[in-house]
TrEMBL record:
It comes from Mycolicibacterium chitae. GO terms for molecular function: glycosyltransferase activity. Its EC number is 2.4.1.-. The gene is icaA_1. Keywords: Glycosyltransferase, Transferase. This is Glycosyl transferase family protein. The keyword Signal does not apply. SUPFAM superfamilies: Nucleotide-diphospho-sugar transferases. Residues 98-218 form the Glycosyltransferase 2-like domain. It holds the Pfam family Glycos_transf_2. It is an enzyme of class 2 (transferase). It comes from the Bacteria.
Length: 431
């Protein structure tokens, strides 16, 4: 029997005909599938694709990403025959969660994201849409048309993703605050997986999830897919200064291993205790990025536990046009450079960075070379993406210090929620 598979997210167009295009979806593996060792599926909307990429899963347990040819509209997928190793002691948890979506002038993408979030089968959650410096009422109209009492809109008038994130933290009514972007489709099990992550790791301040490509119809999207590490592992990892994770030699500075701002949940009290997100970092500020890795790094440096749990999935739509890659590469480079500058301006961070670099000199050199190799497009992308996109990102790192200085000159604060944290402590002391 041939099973139909829906795409991971709605497509914005037809594939560009490049050999990199992939139809993307996911499959819930059954016991019968395992017994047969393969399954035949019909990917919906794959008329112009030659290959499919499918995530195989067993409920919250991820098995593998597999790719296969599409032949006469169907795909034959190999299925692992080994049973999934489940943790029998997993508690059935459903923590109340506040979902925060920060957006600015992307009503169509936002509507798709909210449709996937409000369709979640989860007992108690709210959705806070932070409308950041809105130029018009398009976002307000999306919320009004949705007419879902779980979804509310708050406005953050000052441009900047960090400002919007901090407003979301302040508006959240629940202790767990889950952040995602407006250009994603969340997995049906997303909130269940985040709740399970906190239940398995009660000492965790933050759970980051998997962000696989939800659409691969252009060469630009395929380049970005191999460029980022948001879906590089299906194995959960704990990050703690008390127990250095294996395979992360430059910990705690290999920030790409923590996760990304499109998919993470943080305990609200911890976010406030850290002073919130640095307003000088992130999209909408001169630095154009880095606010997410800065928060992850600061949590770990402060002795908190961060867990990357790939079971919590958010499907992301990368930019489809090659012409936008240079701008995106510049933003990534400047944001990383600004964050690195902030680390080096901090005495403890600077000392630890020099210590790690000295002890791990070979790894430091290897990671630097690897960064350049990942950023540079492979030969298979010749003529399809700008050849200088890798060099643009690397050299843009040098603009980080200036961008951070400009952000501070604009009055963007490093710990804008510090007063909130102080008030909370005073209240506890009085009690």
């Amino acid at each position: 029997m041939i099973r139909e598979l829906a795409a991971a997210m709605p497509s914005n167009g037809a594939p560009d005909g490049s050999p990199h295009a992939r139809w993307v979806g996911w499959l819930e593996v059954t016991a019968d599938d395992r017994a047969r060792g393969q399954v035949e599926v019909r990917p919906v909307g794959a008329d112009h694709y030659r290959k499919a990429r499918v995530l195989l899963r067993d409920d919250l347990d991820l098995l593998d990403f597999v790719e296969a040819e599409i032949v006469d509209g169907t795909v034959t997928l190999p299925i692992p025959t080994e049973p999934t190793t489940r943790e029998k002691s997993d508690p059935a948890v459903a923590l109340p969660i506040s979902v925060v979506v920060c957006t600015r002038d992307r009503p169509q993408d936002l509507a798709h994201a909210l449709a996937s979030i409000t369709a979640l089968d989860y007992p108690e959650f709210e959705v806070v849409v932070v409308d950041n410096a809105p130029p018009d009422d398009k976002t307000a109209r999306v919320i009004a048309e949705l007419a879902d009492p779980r979804v509310r809109r708050v406005v953050e008038p000052k441009p900047g993703l960090s400002n919007a994130r901090n407003t979301g933290v302040g508006a959240a009514r629940h202790e767990i605050v889950a952040f995602t972007d407006d250009d994603v489709v969340v997995d049906p099990h997303w909130l269940r997986a985040l709740a399970r992550g906190f239940a398995r790791n009660p000492d965790a301040a933050c759970i980051c999830g998997l962000v696989p490509s939800g659409e691969l119809r252009t060469a630009a999207q395929a380049y970005f897919d191999q460029r980022v590490s948001w879906a590089s592992t299906l194995v959960p990892t704990r990050f703690s200064m008390d127990d250095q994770p294996a395979g992360v030699p430059l910990f705690p500075f290999q920030v790409g291993r923590y996760g990304t701002g499109a998919n993470f949940a943080i305990k609200r009290a911890e976010a406030i205790e850290m002073g919130g997100f640095d307003e000088a970092l992130g999209a909408g500020s001169p630095t154009r990025g880095g606010e997410d890795i800065d928060m992850f790094y600061r949590l770990v440096m402060a002795g908190r536990v961060l867990v990357n749990d790939p079971a919590a999935i958010v499907w992301h739509r990368h930019r489809a046009e090659a012409s936008t890659l240079l701008e995106q590469a510049t933003g990534y480079g400047v944001g990383f450079g600004a964050w690195a500058t902030k680390v080096m301006l901090d005495r403890d961070g600077r000392r630890l960075a020099f210590t790690v670099a000295r002890r791990r000199l070979r790894d430091t050199a290897d990671r630097g070379l690897a960064y350049g190799a990942i950023a540079a497009p492979k030969s298979e992308f010749n003529g399809m993406v700008p050849r200088r996109v890798g060099a643009t990102e690397i050299f843009s790192v040098l603009g980080g210090p200036w961008a951070l200085w400009r952000g501070r000159r604009q009055g963007r604060r490093p710990v804008p929620l510090a007063a909130t944290a102080g008030a909370a402590h005073s209240s506890l002391n009085r009690a």
